[in-house]
Design brief:
Layout (H helix, E strand, L loop, with lengths): L1 H19 L4 E14 L19 E14 L3 E9 L1 H7 L8 E12 L2 E9 L19 H5 L3 E10 L4 E8 L14 E8 L2 E7 L9 E10 L4 E12 L2 E13 L4 E13 L7 E13 L2 E13 L4 E2 L5 E2 L1 E12 L1
Antiparallel strand pairs: 1-2, 1-18, 2-3, 3-4, 4-5, 5-6, 6-7, 7-8, 8-9, 9-10, 10-11, 11-12, 12-13, 13-14, 14-15, 15-18, 16-17
Keywords: Signal
Pfam families: BBP2
Protein name: Putative beta-barrel porin-2, OmpL-like. bbp2
Amino acid sequence: MKKIFTLSMLFAATALFAQEETPKLSISGSVDAYYQTYLTAPDNVGAGFGTAFAGQSGFALGMGNIIASYEGEKAGVVLDLVTGPRGAGATFSSDIVDGIVNQAYVYWNVSEGTTLTFGRFNTFLGYEVISPAANFNYSTSYLFSSGPFSHMGIKADFALSEDFSLMLAVTNPWDVNDTSMTGEYALGAQLGYKGQFLNLYYDSGEHGGLGFEIDYTGGFDLSDTFFMGINAAYNDNDGAGFYGAALYPQVATSDSFSIGLRGEYFSEHGDDDDQPSVFATTLTGSYTVDNLIIKPEIRLDSWSNDEPFVDNDGMASDNLAAFTLAAIYSF
């Protein structure tokens, strides 16, 4: 019995020591590639939907990213490096080969419910994100593409209760990710309640700034297998801007396969009442094998008061359809 007791104490001490010595450095990331062909236009004309990323026909690379994070007892750091066309588009860089900084920030857990973050971090606006591994649809929406991708500045996150959260931010103006030469700053805020978020952003709108934007992002589990995501936004910059809304119904048919639809209405507004608008419908399947996700996707965009596309005869057209097959591996 003494031997068994001693051995048990040894195992317990070893387990406790292992917990205390758990490495604080973690590495994660993803790699994605895709094939895309236009159904209503030639593949060789360079026609695209006008939204961010996935704008090439034929076989193409999306991006690769590696996220390194180190977490201490009260503070930590995150470095997110990206490469490839999607990473270049997200960081407004013409270099698609070398590593590019997507995120780089330090944070301080001031208290159990308060965290300060300082550096460059991805935006809090919108339903979608830069990494395709975290989006259901592979292509992105007009609302996502029209807003900022990242911010450079400082933010404070407050856990007000189990249900309520608040974020306040002071950053450089819209998409000025490295430095601001104008002496201007932007203000941001986010109020969260049980997975629903109301987002606010403001800069002066000068020097290419975004101006004012209010954005709602959320969703509801309508059943164990049916989720409905929602995004709506309104932007104004000196009397001009955009507004729109998108629904994201998603159904899980099995543990490995889901199907989802993104229906989006997006419109510009300004002095001219006859502004162009688009209704975009994207149907996406998602099949998971271990850490690999295969996404077949069909998308159709239809514009009013504008003909930004071409058809198979090379004539201007108000609609474009495409088939995309994407593969995403996360680690």
